[in-house]
């Protein structure tokens, strides 16, 4: 019996992506690329949330994980300590839901702290 792949079509670009990698927004499903695209202008790298751009600029000399949420720090430090981990490992070790993890990684990637890396066909999240 063939394994059924649960693919979802991105509402924006039509690309088929695994259901667990898709972002749901209202009645739309978006692939990560489109999701980030859509939110880039609004959210950009903004783990600091309420800080204005002016304040952000003052904080620009602060490096690394300053200003991140505890969960974002936890994810970042986990990745750094292992020099890369798969999302599955993070879900298991950090006890975070796949959706939450995906959102946090998207933010960290925007901050140029983490990025994806293909290691022999397995996607790892590694330090930027
Ligand atoms: Zn898309």
Describe this structure in words.
By secondary structure, the chain is of the alpha+beta class. It has 2 domains: 1-43, no CATH class; 45-58 and 65-128, Winged helix-like DNA-binding domain superfamily/Winged helix DNA-binding domain (Arc Repressor Mutant, subunit A, Orthogonal Bundle). The protein is built from 5 helices and 6 strands, in the order ββββαααααββ. The chain has helices at 32-43, 53-58, 70-82, 87-94, 98-110; strands spanning 7-9, 16-18, 23-25, 28-30, 114-119, 122-127. It has a two-stranded antiparallel ribbon. The protein has a two-stranded antiparallel sheet with strand order 3-4. Strands 5-6 form a two-stranded antiparallel sheet. Strand 3 and strand 4 (28-30) form a beta hairpin. The radius of gyration is 16 Å and the shape is globular. It binds zinc ion. Zinc ion (ZN) binds at residues 10, 12-13, 15, 30-31, 33-34. Zinc ion binds at residues 10, 12-13, 15, 30-31, 33-34.
Please report the number of helical segments: 5
Helix content: 40-55%
* Helix-strand topology string: EEEEHHHHHEE
Measured between the Cα atoms of the first and last residue, the distance is 41 Å
Q: Give the averaged pLDDT, no decimals.
A: 78
The CATH class label of the largest domain is Mainly Alpha
Q: How many structural domains can be distinguished in the coordinates?
A: 2
Q: Could you give a short account of the major beta sheet? A: 2 strands, antiparallel
CATH topology of the largest domain: Arc Repressor Mutant, subunit A
Walk me through the topology.
Blueprint: E1 7-9, E2 16-18, E3 23-25, E4 28-30, H1 32-43, H2 53-58, H3 70-82, H4 87-94, H5 98-110, E5 114-119, E6 122-127
Antiparallel strand pairs: 1-2, 3-4, 5-6
Helix pairs in contact: 3-5
């Amino acid at each position: 019996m063939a394994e059924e792949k649960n693919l979802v079509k991105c509402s924006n670009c039509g690309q088929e992506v695994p259901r667990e990698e898709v972002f749901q927004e209202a009645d739309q499903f978006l692939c990560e690329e489109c999701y980030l695209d859509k939110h880039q202008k609004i959210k950009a790298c903004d783990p600091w949330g309420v800080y204005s751009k002016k304040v952000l600029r003052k904080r620009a000399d602060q490096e690394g994980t300053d200003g991140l949420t505890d969960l974002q720090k936890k994810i970042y430090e986990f990745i750094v300590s292992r020099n890369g981990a798969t999302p599955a490992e993070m879900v298991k070790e950090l006890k975070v839901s796949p959706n939450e993890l995906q959102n946090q990684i998207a933010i960290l990637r925007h901050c140029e702290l983490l990025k994806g890396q293909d290691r022999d066909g397995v996607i790892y999240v590694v330090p930027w």
